Amino acid sequence: MNPNAMLALDLEKITAAIASGTRPNQVLWQTEDSIAFVARGREGRSEFHVDPSDEVMYMIKGDMNLHYRTPEGEEKVAVIREGGIIHCPAGTPHSPRFAPDAFVLVIERKRRTGEQDRFFWFCPSCKAQLYEASRHVRDYLADPVSEVYAEFYGDDAHRTCRKCGHVAPPRPGAAARS
To answer: Which SS3 state, helix, strand or coil, does residue 34 take?
Structure first.
């Protein structure tokens, strides 16, 4: 195949493949400068992600409630309807929350050497920070969100608030798996 050929991607086929598979996302391309992937919603998503670069999200199917935190620490929600697009500036703590049968296209800059993606969880009771994880994301095929989820939910101490003692609920569906 000619590496210079420009081929259009079929988002309907891509979302169908994700829906019938076990991975929550599919990388469309990953070049030296950019990355694009399609992701389905995750049940009970609660962490906030901080990217070192700008991010553009386009809702292919379904609606998204994009929770984000202002520089003052206030949590707000932007609603992105199916067919809508949003720009999320670098450094903005955001938590894309949408149903498992909904899909988003994400385009962002590939991480540079030394850049860290950060993931935060906050106490649902008092809003204090529960846990933080950082990763240098070299390759999105590694699914860094699933990796930090396993880390957070794998240790009760990560889910226990040091300020008020509240314990965040276990990972959605965990009781069904045990």
So the answer is: strand
Kindly tell me the burial class for residue 62, based on how many C-beta atoms sit within 10 Å of its own C-beta (0-12, 13-18, 19 or more): middle
Region 145-161: mean pLDDT is 91
Alpha helices in the chain, H assignment, sequence order: 11-20, 144-153, 156-159, 174-177
Instruction: Answer yes or no: are the C-beta atoms of 77 and 95 closer than 8 Å.
Output: no
Per cent of the chain over pLDDT 70 is 94
Rounded to an integer, the average pLDDT of 26-49 is 92
N-terminal to C-terminal alpha carbon distance within the chain: 46
Instruction: Answer for the pair 91, 50: CB distance below 8 angstroms, yes or no.
Output: yes
| Global confidence as pTM | 0.88
What beta strand segments (E) does 41-168 contain?
48-50, 55-61, 64-69, 75-80, 85-88, 94-97, 103-109, 117-122, 129-135
Beta bridge partners of 104: 39, 59
107 Ramachandran zone, left/alpha/beta (phi>0; psi -120 to 50)? beta
pLDDT higher than 50, residue 71: yes
Alpha helices in 30-167 (DSSP H): 144-153, 156-159
